[in-house]
Amino acid sequence: MIVRSIPALLLLSGVPLVAQAQIAVSTSSATRTYTNDVGFSYTFPADWEVVDMTSSLPGAQQQAQQQAASDQEKRGIGCTQVGLSARYGTPASTVVAVVLPFACLGSEMTEKDLPGIGSGALEGVRQNFDLGDPVDGSYSLASHSMWIERVAGTLKEHPEVQYAVEVVCSILKKGAVCWMAIAADQAALVGFEHGVIVLDNGPPSMLVPADAFANKPS
Questions:
Q1: Are the beta carbons of 195 and 206 closer than 8 angstroms?
Q2: Angle at which helices 57-66 and 5-14 cross, to 10°
Q3: In sequence order, what are the residues at sequence separation of 6 or more whose Cβ sits closer than 8 angstroms to the Cβ of residue 122?
Q4: pLDDT over 50 (residue 96)
Q5: How far, CA to CA in Å, does 92 sit from each of 52, 64, 86, 89, 161?
Q6: Number of CB atoms found within 10 A of residue 54's CB
Q7: How does DSSP classify residue 110?
Q8: Cα radius of gyration (the chain)
Q9: Tens digit of pLDDT for each residue in 55-91?
Q10: 71-79 vs 5-14: helix axis angle to the nearest 10?
Q11: Which pTM value belongs to this model?
Q12: Which of 44, 84, 96, 107 is the most exposed place for a label (fewest CB within 10 A)?
């Protein structure tokens, strides 16, 4: 299924937690802003190191396509883009934004696809993490439906470090997008959730509001 292509690449690009060459984003004294042509921007703390996934993305795509269940899913994986990758602190926390443009895909998705887009994400994380039970929810930002899932985990090679793994997905006019955080501490998780997003030229909003888990997707 195509809806699994975003989580598959998102996880392959976000793990392991390694530094790569920096790429440019708009920067102010306190924040950085990443803007994507599919129709969103994401503003995050300036002390997060932005890293370039260009060299590792082809390998991640090839690995994900080998696990694809159909030609349709392979096409979705080939169209998927790692728009943003950033890391912070020691032990490292990471944030990744992954985009699937509808123009490349040749078809569109709807909010009904959100659980499918997000639910496959934890399977890839399990390659490197021991995970607890996930909690999911749904909320709206202006006219956009958002799907979120969070789970506690530990790196298999370093079980002494506790992580929070969180995925947020939405459907835009020109494509689907998922943000993912692998946060080693509360400060990193708050930095991810309090990042300001603008969707399809709408009003700015925090990525994850305080009541994000109040409503569970049907």
A1: yes
A2: 130
A3: 131, 134, 149, 151, 165
A4: yes
A5: 16, 24, 10, 5, 10
A6: 11
A7: -
A8: 16
A9: 666 666 677 677 666 777 777 777 888 888 899 888 8
A10: 50
A11: 0.85
A12: 107
Res. 27: pLDDT tops 70: no
Helix, strand, coil percent content, the chain, rounded in steps of 5: 25, 40, 35
Nearest to 155 by CA among 134, 133, 119, 127: 127
CA angle at 136 for the pair 135 and 142, rounded to the nearest 5°: 145
Asked if 133 and 162 count as a contact pair (C-beta separation under 8 A), the reply is: no
- Integer Cα distance of 170 and 193 in angstroms: 15
Q: State the pLDDT at residue 18.
A: 32
> Kind and range of the H or E element at 63?
helix 57-66
pLDDT tens digits for 126-165? Answer: 778 898 998 999 999 989 999 999 999 998 888 888 899 9
Question: Is residue 169 within 8 Å of 26, Cβ to Cβ?
Answer: no
